[in-house]
Design a protein that fits this description.
Layout: H1 6-24, E1 46-52, E2 62-67, E3 79-83, E4 98-101, H2 108-113, E5 118-122, H3 128-136, E6 143-147, H4 167-177, E7 183-190, H5 200-214, E8 219-224, H6 237-241, H7 244-247, E9 251-254, H8 273-284, E10 292-297, H9 317-330, E11 336-340, H10 361-372
Parallel strand pairs: 4-5, 4-11, 5-6, 6-7, 7-8, 8-9, 9-10, 10-11
Antiparallel strand pairs: 1-2, 1-3
Helix pairs in contact: 3-4, 4-5, 9-10
């Protein structure tokens, strides 16, 4: 029997121990270690909204999800994302002032020559694509204020009519124009009267909210008349009822027209202090000066053909210039201003403005000087 030395025995024992330890630490049939997956906590990412592009514009289905941007991610061919809109965008003043021409009647070249750069475009209730075509055809450097049908406008003793555009018709226009850079905003109502149409403010608010949500950056606008004849409790009631805090509109036009005839049909001196009074009343009743849009009287009813009484008269050049100067002192840097009206509005059945800028070249010279003045815009 061969004797084994003690060092040899020790070496054999150590070798056996190492083999046993290596076998104990291996997994699987081939002895390959399985790596352990490390799960990192999900970071707080960008709030995004997923939009189903296959839905119709007014029925787009949106959902909110938390996502983390990854460079290697492949975008889906169907689902797109955009930042969630949580509030109306802050009004940003344009680099140049806007001058709005109402009732353009196809005279775009003449109006641009006079310095107008914001134009009245009527929305179509039956063919929104035709409205899109009109907007796209606007000359470079100009934008559209899209008319979406009147609402809440009725005289005392009359019933309140339904909005000119139904909700479905309204949404179809906004949806097709929502990202169009040539759209400045939407004209939602012309002189609504809450004493006759008490629901007008809530309808305007709902439509303004829809625009701010679905067409962020585009603005909402209304014109308010106010006045003692429509305010049983005193002047200021319409400004108060339609102030931005209530209706969520961005901009509000004030249209105190100071030039008129008396009950005997004789011309009286333009009382331009009426402009100052209405601006102060608007401010006192919740309309900030930054939201006020001046509306200049550039029309008259001389030569009216519809048999109705003549009240408003065309201002002289001196009176028109006085109005422009006063408005400038009261609202020095409006987001835009309006000369009402460019086109003649007169038929045998309705002749509210047989006199306008279009047939008064002496007023055109003054408005061109006004529009050409280089000023800052936005308060």
């Amino acid at each position: 029997m061969t004797l084994i030395s003690k060092p040899t025995i020790v070496c054999l024992l150590i070798s056996f121990f190492l083999v046993a330890c290596r076998s104990e630490g291996s997994t699987g049939s081939g002895g390959i270690q399985t790596p352990v997956a490390t799960i990192l906590p999900t970071p707080t990412g960008l709030q995004v909204t997923a939009v189903n592009n296959q839905a119709t514009p007014s029925q787009a289905i949106t959902s909110t999800a938390t996502a983390v941007a990854q460079q290697a991610a492949t975008p889906s061919p169907v689902i797109t994302t955009r930042a969630t809109v949580v509030a109306p965008t802050t009004l940003i003043a344009p680099t140049i002032p806007y001058h709005y021409a109402f009732n353009t009647q196809g005279d775009m070249a003449d109006l641009i020559a006079l310095g107008f750069n914001l134009f009245d475009i009527s929305g179509s209730k039956t063919n929104p694509a035709s409205t899109l075509a009109l907007v796209n055809a606007l000359p470079e450097g100009t934008q559209a204020l899209v008319w979406l049908g009147n609402l809440g406008n009725a005289s005392k003793g009359q019933s309140c009519p339904a909005p000119g555009f139904s909700d479905k018709e309204f949404m179809a226009i906004v949806d097709i124009l929502a990202i169009n850079p040539k759209v400045f905003g939407y004209n939602l109502a012309d002189e609504p009267h809450p004493s006759v149409c008490p629901e007008a403010a809530s309808i305007i608010r709902a439509r303004s909210d829809y625009i701010h949500t679905h067409a962020p950056g585009q603005k909402t606008y209304i014109t308010i008349m106010d006045g003692s004849n429509m305010c049983p409790e005193g002047e200021g009631c319409e400004y108060r009822a339609f102030q931005p805090e209530i209706t969520h509109v961005d901009l509000i036009g004030l249209d105190p027209y100071p030039c008129h005839f008396n009950s005997a049909g004789q011309p009286v001196v333009c009382d331009i202090s009426k402009i100052s009074d209405r601006v102060q009343s608007a401010i006192d009743n919740g309309i900030p000066i930054s939201a006020i849009i001046p509306v200049f009287q550039a029309f008259g009813q001389e030569g009216r053909l519809d048999g109705k009484s003549i009240y408003y008269r065309t201002p002289t050049t001196t009176e028109f210039q006085d109005m422009l100067d006063l408005w400038k002192s009261l609202v020095p840097n409006p987001v835009f201003d309006i000369a009402y009206t460019w086109g003649i509005q007169c038929t045998e059945s309705s002749c509210v403005a047989p006199q306008s800028l279009k047939n008064h070249p002496e007023l055109q010279l003054l408005i061109k000087q006004h529009n050409s003045a280089v000023t800052g815009a936005g308060n």
